[in-house]
Every structure is written in structure tokens, then in C-alpha cells.
Amino acid sequence: MNIVYDRIAIIGVGLIGASIARAAREYGAANVIALYDANPAVRQRARDLGLGEVFDDPEKAVAKAELVVLCVPVGAMAGAISACSRSLKIGAIVTDVGSVKQAVVDAVSAVLPSYVYFVPGHPIAGTEQSGPDAGFATLFHNRWHILTPLPGDEREAYAAAVDQVAEFWRALGANVDLMDPQRHDVVLAVTSHLPHLIAFNIVAMAEDLENVTESEVVKYSASGFRDFTRIAASDPTMWRDVFLNNRDAVLEILGRFSEDLAALQRAIRWGEGDTLYSLFDRARRMRREVIEAGQDTPAPNWGREN
Amino acid sequence: MNIVYDRIAIIGVGLIGASIARAAREYGAANVIALYDANPAVRQRARDLGLGEVFDDPEKAVAKAELVVLCVPVGAMAGAISACSRSLKIGAIVTDVGSVKQAVVDAVSAVLPSYVYFVPGHPIAGTEQSGPDAGFATLFHNRWHILTPLPGDEREAYAAAVDQVAEFWRALGANVDLMDPQRHDVVLAVTSHLPHLIAFNIVAMAEDLENVTESEVVKYSASGFRDFTRIAASDPTMWRDVFLNNRDAVLEILGRFSEDLAALQRAIRWGEGDTLYSLFDRARRMRREVIEAGQDTPAPNWGREN
Questions:
Q1: What is the CATH number of domain A183-271?
Q2: Does residue A49 belong to the interface with chain B, where contact is any CB pair within 8 Å?
Q3: For B132-155, how does the pLDDT look when each residue is reduced to its tens digit (9 = 90+)?
Q4: Cβ-nearest to A306 among B142, B216, B256
Q5: Is ipTM beyond 0.85?
Q6: pLDDT tens per residue, range A130-141
Q7: Where are the domains of chain A?
Q8: Strand, coil or helix: what is B29?
Q9: If you count Cβ atoms within 10 Å of the first and of the last residue's Cβ in chain A, which end, N or C, has fewer?
Q10: Which residues of chain B neighbour A194 with C-beta distances below 8 Å?
């Protein structure tokens, strides 16, 4: 087995934190896994699940750790690292799993001691479930993990720190990509933030209709709506923080979405069948590319039982 | 086995037509299954797949059939039945599977002989795939099938015809509901037509961006976007006809969606975290209800392999 670190610390034991703990153990990426969560009930659950050494004090959790992985919502990153930064060991590497990168870079860099290395990251993996029970070891298998090294960090050992974080994620089964933090935020606004926003919006809207009841929506949801409810079941705190912290990129792509939707609305109003057909036909191609790139299953209906 | 009909005819052998043929045979809902499709290549494929007795002439396909099931796009229903209505037997029942009901009721009623019974219907089932090869016998299992009997048909035998169509769908494994055609169109605009429109829109938009490439979108699509590509892979002709034929209900619900999205956009712009959180939290509840109603799998990520 290829042990990458002797000791890591995971701060925040939700779906991602618990999955990292399980994967690091299962694939031998770390000898000792220390865990901390601000919520005492979550710490207890992490103990019951045997995810690693659970600490009630974040400073004790990170002491002696070579790698600290911040697995809290984007808006809580700076507070989480501030609560334990005094006991970070010299030369420790800090990384994170936030879905927004530039805001995390700014907030965490501002509070981090100068003698540690910060290598921001984002695993393109997850499910609609949350909490320590939702974690599983294979979550990162064959998924992309994006690292956004700090362009301004010119210390000689920084490149080696980036390599070591990449090696850790590869040990968990992920493929690692490097990207500029701001570029990450623009790309993810398209592939992740906007899709979630739209799903939240349509599901919340459907609860509020005057002329169609919620039970009708639920009953006939297999005609398309149910797919949106899965994404909309994701953790609300995590997503609130994403939108608050990637505001500009999200607003820009949302403007584009609304503009295109208005054009589609107009084509429906005026009965422009050819416009609709060619747009729908184009959209179909993208599905084939996603499947060919190994980013989704080719099984009809995702292989779910109806 | 509970044979419902001695002879049925299926007009249009795509995903739905082929699934009905397979299910009717497997569950003994019909002794003889006659098939016709306007496309010679599809007829040949239906023969190769052994879906039933395939005819090159629609009049021959429906002759002597007690039940004729129209499985063509909504805009092609009237033409499909006109092409064979002269050879419909007296007292035959005609049904359809269109995703829009009032427009089909109007179009088909106008061309149907007075000596047959028209019982419009819509199975809430499907996959993103199309064509005869995509059909499978269990497609309708535990899914709703909505019948929208004609309010104006007061013939004594009409109620019995409705019952017999319901019995047919129950034999295929579906649960049958009755609904007014216009009500159907409003409810499905919410649960099906709007979700598809949004999925088509976001996927087509993503192909056209100036600052994010198509290959980036595909590569990182597992962060949410890929789910939309599945729905957007549905048959473009079918969906063009849905939007052209359910225009008013779709435009109304689309207006509501855009209004709510504008409010969400404003909350992001002004950093209103509480508004975002409470909306996302509400959306989450709907997922639980969908699962409790048996309308989706509780498995994380639909059980697909990552």
C-alpha cells in the first residue's frame, strides 16, 4: 500500500469529510485519521461509525497532522481554520473541498500562518445526501479533483506541497486537474451552480402553485420533475454559501440562461417549430459526449428501477 | 393469463409503441399485436425484433383490431389515424399515449368515424432513449397511466370502453387515473413540460458559451449538469410537438418560473443568505415526498456508479 501521509486531520464530517476518512483508510492514503466537527452530535456519530480518531478540540485534531482537509461549507472555511491554526505544525499542508475557490482562497489565506502551505481543491463528486452516515469510500473513484494552487505562492516547497495533495487524491481514486481559482469558479458556475439553482427554483415553485397541488406534482413527478428533486435535496447551508461566495459568476451565467429561456419562450408563443426542433436536437448531442467522456452511465434512466 | 383483447394495433413503433408491444405479449394483454410505422426502416426493425405482426399498410394494421393505440408524436396523431380510419372496425376503441391531451382530443375527434370510441391516455413513463430498440416490457410497471375520457361522449357504451382501456394498462402493470384533458395539460406542464424545457435550455446554452468550452462542461458535468443532459436527450420531434400543442399552459408556468428565478437572482445579488437558505430547505422536503410516494429510488445518486 502506498501511504501518502502518516497523519491527516479532517475538519467537518459531512458527506465529503466522512467519505475522505473512509477512502483514506480503505486505500491506505493515511496511517492516522484525526477528525473534528463543530457539532457534538456529528462527532459522536463519527465515533460510532469508527471513521478515525475523533477530537472534541480542533487544535488537538490538527496537531501533528501533515495534511489538514477543510470539509465545511464555503462560508465557514476561514472560521474553521482560525479555530485551530495556532496548533498547525510547521510545514503542514492545508487543503479544502469547497465548491467555490477564489472566495476560499481569499478568506483562508488571510488567517493562515505563514509557515504552512495552502493548496485549495474541489472534488467533482457527491450525492444528494448529507452528514457522516452518507459517506462512502468509493465516492471519488474516477471523478475529477480540481486543485487551484495559489498563483502568488512562490515558495520553493509549494510545488511539492501541490504534488503531495494531488498524490493524496489520486490515492483515493480521483483524477487530478490543475486550474486557476477564478477560472474554476466560472466553469463550475456553469456545470454545477446554475443547475442547482434552477433545480431549487423549480422545486420550490412547484410547492407554491395555486392551481396545481403539491400532491399532484409528487404523484406525476416521474414525468421529469423528480430528477430535479434529487439535486434540490442537497445541503441548504452548503448551497447558500456557494451562491453568496460565487455571486458574480453565477449572476452572469444566470443572465445568459434567462436570455436564452426568453428566446425559447418566444419560439413557443409564435409556434416556431423549426427553432424548437433544432435547439432540442443540439441538446441531445451533449448527452452523448457526457457518456463518451465517462461522466455518466449510458443505462436508460440511470438504470434506476423505473 | 388475463387476455384483455384478441387483437390490438400499435401505430408508431418508438420507445413507447415497442414497450407496449413487448408488455402486451409478456403479460398476455393481447393475443395478436399488429404494428405499423410510417418509417420503413422502423418497420423492418420491428420485424427483426419480433415485436408482432408488422404491416406496410396502416389500414391493414388496424383492420379487425379491437384496440388501436396511437404512439406517434402529438402533432402526428390526427394524420396517423386519418391514414387508417376507413378500415377501423365498428365499435373499435382508439387510444393514444400523447403527452398533451386537449390538442389531441380536438385533432383526433375531428377525423374519427362516429362508430368508434376514443379514450385518450398518457403513460407517465419513459426513458431518454427513442426508437424500437429502446422498448422494454416493464416500462409501465408501477407507473401512473392517466386516461382523459371525453366529457362530451355520452354514448352508453363509452364508459365500458374507458374501463376496457384502463384494464389494458393495468395488465401492463400501470396504475390508472382519470383526469379532465385540460387539467392534465396544466399538471403535466408543471411536472414534465417545464422541466424538459429548462433542461433543453441549459444544455443548449452550455454549447454556446464564449468563456467556457464545451469540453470543460462535459468534463466537469458530474457536478450537476449531467443530470440535465439525460432529460435533454429525449426525442426532439416529440418535444417540439408538446410545446406547440400545450402552449398556453407551458407559457403560464414558464412565466411563474422566471418570476421566481428573478427573485432568487435578486437574493443572490443582495447577499440575502436567509432567503436562499429557507428556499433551499423547502425544496429538500419535496424530495422526501417523491420517495415516500414511490416515484423515485431512495438510493443516493439514483444508485448509478458515481
A1: 1.10.3660.10
A2: no
A3: 999 999 999 999 999 999 999 999
A4: B142
A5: yes
A6: 999 999 999 999
A7: 5-179, 183-271
A8: coil
A9: N
A10: 202
